[in-house]
Amino acid sequence: MVAREAGEITLRYFRRDDLRVDHKQDDSPVTIADREAEQHLRDRIADAFPKDAIVGEEFDDREGTSGYRWILDPIDGTKSFISGVPLYGTLIGVEHNGECLLGVISMPALGETVYAETGGGAWYVHGNAEPTPAKVSSSEHLAEGLFCTTAVGSFGETDRLPAYDRLQAEARVTRTWGDCYGYLLVVTGRAAVMVDPIMNVWDAAALKPILEEAGGRFTDWTGQPTIHSGEGVGTNGHVHDEVIGLLSGES
Predict the structure, then answer these.
(1) How far apart are CA 188 and CA 185, in angstroms?
(2) Three-class SS string for 181-238?
(3) What CA–CA distance (Å, rounded) separates 105 from 206?
(4) Rounded to 5 degrees, what are φ and ψ at 83?
(5) How far is the C-alpha of 185 from the C-alpha of 112, rounded, in Å?
(6) d(CA 167, CA 94)
(7) Residue ranges of domains in the chain, CATH in brackets
C-alpha cells in the first residue's frame, strides 16, 4: 500500500536528534520527512494514474483531466512527529468530480491503518495482520463516550472555547489525542467523537469516506457533509446531532 510506503519514509527520520525543522509562511513546521513522503506519493500516483489531479500540503497542485483528484497529507500531526510522539499519520483521500470516494489513515509509528472505499466498507489493519471490519461504537450519548480533539488552543484561536467547554462537560472522557489519530479512534469504536475547529482539505479528505463506511458521520460544525468548510466533526453517528447542538450552543 502506497500509504505504508510513505509512512516508512517518515520513520527514517522519526526521533532523530539531527532532524531539521523549517517553518512555512504560516509558521507551521515542516521537515524533510514531510517533503520526501509526499514526493513519493506524488510519483507513485502520477505513474499509475497520469491523468489524475493531485493536491498536497507541501507542493503545488497538479492539474488533471480524469475527474479524479488525490488529496495528500504526508504527515498529519507534524508537531507530534517532531516531538517524538507516535500519534501522527499519513492521509490519502480521493475525490471524483468533487465526491469523496476513498480514504486511508496510516499510523506508521503505531502500525495501525484504516481504509475505505465508498460501498466497500471500512477496514482496520494492525501490523501485518489480516484486515478486519472497522466499526464505530454503539454509544448513544456523548456522556457514554470519549471526546477527542487536536488542541484546546484551536478553539480559542477561533473564538469557540465555550464549545469546547460544553463538549468536555458532557463527555465521559476528554483527551487531546489529536490529528488523524482521533478520527481513527472513532472509526475503530474507541472514541465517540473527534472535533477540530481548524482543518485544511488535506486534513479532511481521507476521513469522510472512512467514517461513513464504518457507520459514522463526518460533517462541518453545522452538520453539512463536506470536507471544504475548514473545520470537522467525526462521530459514531449516534451522537452526531447531540454534538452539533453542543457546538452551536443549542443543546
Answers:
(1) 5
(2) HHHHHHHCCCCCEEEECCCCHHHHCCHHHHHHHCCCEEECCCCCCCCCCCCEEEECCC
(3) 7
(4) -90, 0
(5) 11
(6) 31
(7) 2-133 (3.30.540.10), 142-248 (3.40.190.80)
Which residues are CB-contacts of 67 (< 8 A; sequence separation ≥ 6)? Answer: 96, 97
Q: Are the CB atoms for 214 and 237 separated by under 8 Å?
A: no
68-76/53-56 β-pairing: parallel
Q: Does pTM surpass 0.90? A: yes
First to last CA, the chain: 42
The set of cell numbers assigned to 43 is 510519483
Q: What is the pLDDT of residues 42-60, one digit of tens each?
A: 999 999 999 999 999 999 9
Burial class of residue 65, CB neighbours in 10 A (0-12, 13-18, 19+): exposed
Question: DSSP label at 250?
Answer: -
| 186 Cα distance to chain centroid | 11
DSSP category for residue 150: S
